Amino acid sequence: MNHDAHDDRLPNQLTRALDAPTDALTLRQQERLKNARLAALARYDARAEEPTRITETAGIWLSHHARLVRHGSAALLVGLLALASSLWLAEGRLTVDESPTEASLLSNDLPLEAFLEPTFSRAVEK
Amino acid sequence: MSPRSAVPSRSKRRLLLAGLLVAPLIALASPPASPDWVQLSTDQQTALAPLSRDWDRFSPAKKQQMLNLVDDYQALDPAGRQRLQARLKGWSELTPQQQDEARANWKRLQALPPDERAAAYDRLRTLSSPHH
User: Are the Cβ atoms of B72 and A103 closer than 8 angstroms?
Assistant: First the structure.
């Protein structure tokens, strides 16, 4: 048996069928295609009548506002960083380096007690 | 073969930017370092010598505060270094509130006009002398 000839016929048949112009279709085939198109359109119309699901609305909004979302995300990240920094500063975990002030204070010729209350205010407010 | 571009791709730039933004968060979330006295450099041990006996008991935050003084210490003249070291132990024993108060008052003093500042210095010297 010539298997090669048999195997070759099916792909060629499919190719010819797909390449064939539609006016080569039979009336029955054209009718079936038309009914399939009408059914697909009817399903589309029915779906369009249904209320949009939230996920679909969000997806459409995101796709239309991708740039805004990207920039908004960056702005949110910067805002969160600023908030975290201010909280850490308030907690004392993020401290301002006071060493220049401390070094000046500690190396001047007045004792430390002079800068504590009430001594300091008594001297300065006279 | 074309040479690899020196300009990072868009996705790599975004990754780098994200890393730069996140890295400080990670650093700040980590506890400060807490070196033992023997781990300090020679310069650090010299500057902070009055604290050598108490050092290992200090909290990491206090250690960092004292270590921050080392560079400023080294910028002082010999007399300034001597005065700083004479006050260092007392400074380390003040409460945080007292330290805040002292720093704020020092800044207040420096903000005075020169003649008022000189007069305030004299009064402070008098008030804080042992015989007063």
Answer: yes
Q: Which residue has the tokens 């201010």?
A: A86
Residue of B nearest to A97 (CA): B68
Nearest CB among B80, B81, B91 relative to A112 is that of B91
* Predicted pLDDT at B112: 93
- How many angstroms separate the CA atoms of A3 and A111, rounded? 108
The pLDDT tens digits for B55-67 are 999 999 999 999 9
Mean pLDDT of B31-49: 92
What is the Cα–Cα distance from A29 to A22, expressed in whole angstroms? 9
Give chain B's end-to-end CA distance (angstroms, integer): 86
Chain B residues with CB under 8 Å of A70 CB are none
Phi-psi region of B35 (alpha: psi -120 to 50; beta: other; left: phi over 0): beta
How far is residue A122 from each of residues A31, A83, A126, measured CA to CA in Å?
106, 40, 7
Q: Residue A61: is its pLDDT beyond 80?
A: yes
Query: Please, what's the largest Cα pairwise distance for chain A?
Result: 122
**Of A77, A81, A110, which has the smallest distance from its Cβ to B128's Cβ?**
A110
What's the pTM value of the predicted model, to 2 decimals? 0.56
Angstrom distance (rounded) from CA A17 to CA A8 = 14
